[in-house]
Amino acid sequence: MGVLSGCVRKACGLLSSTLIGKGTSHSSAMVVGDPNSRSRVIVLRVGGGKSDSAVLWLLSRGGILCSCFARTQNALFLSASARSCVCKHTVALRRCLAKDNIPADRFWQRMHLSSAPADFMCAQPYGPMRFWVVLYRSVYSLVSFSAANAATCIAPSCRRFRTRCGHVALARPLNGARRAAASELKPAVAAKPKVKAATTSDGRGVPADLPEEDAGIETEPCDTARGSADAAEANVAARVRRNILPCVAEISAGEVWARTADWRGMSERRCATHEDERADKLQTMSNIMAAGVGNGLVHERSFVPVEPYCASCGQKRDDKNTIIKERAVLYTHHPTAPAIQVRVCRSLARVVA
Predict the structure, then answer these.
(1) How does 170-190 read in b/e, with b if 16+ C-beta sit within 10 Å?
(2) What is the reported pTM?
(3) How far is residue 129 from each of residues 46, 47, 124, 230, measured CA to CA in Å?
């Protein structure tokens, strides 16, 4: 709002201010126009990407249009009427006019397009990127080209064929000429002389411009104590990687924990009431919980979840392993179940016979 307000005031011939120093904003707004006609547009940027840029302009009949990634309205259709686009940029522009007490007629006289505007384009650099502001058939748009000369047009009416629309067709020859001129002005890079690599005592080649390696670090003992029956480190590292999606067993376990949290929450709410039949209701809930534990629907209060396999060596836990229990709070994906207190296994201590 700050940079847009300053741009609007400047476009209307009023005094404006710009922050400098530590309080400088990363957003920018500027007026771009065709020197041969009355075609003028506000280029608004709030970041370095294509989705962070927008162009706002006024029609000859008073409507405010915008080309940005945040909306899907077709500005080509709206340009034939007095209707305006509805997006956050047009809302911000109207708020700036109301905040600065700028009459809409005054702003329209300085910024509106003619009834039959001529097509034009101009380049606007922004950091490492370069945008082309293109006016084609009364519709403004921002066109950008990648390093591989792939074009992108942000106009909603051109997104189905954004690489061959009218905006891209106008900007591509100028962009090609600019790339050719930049390649000619670029100085030729002299070939660097090859540096002979140094050789260590064991015969390995090391670049001369790098610091010396830490010799012997690969022979240091591992921090994790491993037994003779543990799997080889190569076999442990060669396991199949899993994605972040849960498997069927994990989904089933999550449903059991969600049901456990829900039933425990209902029991606690029954305990908090002061009804005469509370004892009978609690006994009923206890019977339901006992039946659920027997059928595997819920977990009993003394249940401690333990991973059956060690995360370090991959061996299955047996009776010789000591389980270290620790208090924890469990949150489930149930929409109404509260968090419950559980005990979990913090680590496995291998008992050496």
Answers:
(1) bbbeebeeeeeeeeeeeeeee
(2) 0.48
(3) 14, 11, 9, 55
Q: 54 by DSSP, 3-state: which?
A: strand
Q: Quick one: pLDDT band at residue 224, thresholds 50, 70, 90?
A: low
Rounded to an integer, what distance in angstroms lies between the CA atom of residue 195 and that of residue 214? 22
pLDDT digits (tens, 9 = 90+) for 301-348: 888 888 777 766 667 777 777 777 888 888 887 878 888 888 776 544
Could you give the residue ranges of the DSSP H alpha helices within the chain? 2-11, 75-78, 88-99, 104-111, 166-185, 233-237, 248-272, 278-294
Higher pLDDT, 187 or 64: 64
Choose among 156, 180, 158, 157: nearest CA to 169: 158
Are the CB atoms for 30 and 43 separated by under 8 Å? yes
Q: What is the amino acid identity at position 210?
A: L
CA distance linking residue 299 with residue 338, whole number of Å? 15
Q: Which amino acid is at 83?
A: R
Reference 267, options 296, 289, 292; nearest CA is 289
Please name which of 84, 36, 80 lies closest in space to residue 58, comparing C-alpha atoms: 84
**Token digits for 245?**
């999606």
How far apart, in whole angstroms, are the C-alpha atoms of residue 154 and residue 166?
A: 12
DSSP category for residue 22: G
State pLDDT tens for residues 96-139: 888 888 888 888 888 888 877 888 888 877 666 678 888 888 88
Q: Beta-carbon neighbour count of residue 75 at 10 Å?
A: 24
The length of the chain, given as a count of residues: 353
Structure tokens at 299: 């977990």
pLDDT band at 353 (very low <50, low <70, confident <90, very high): very low
Sign of the CA dihedral with 266 first, then 268, 272, and 274 last: positive
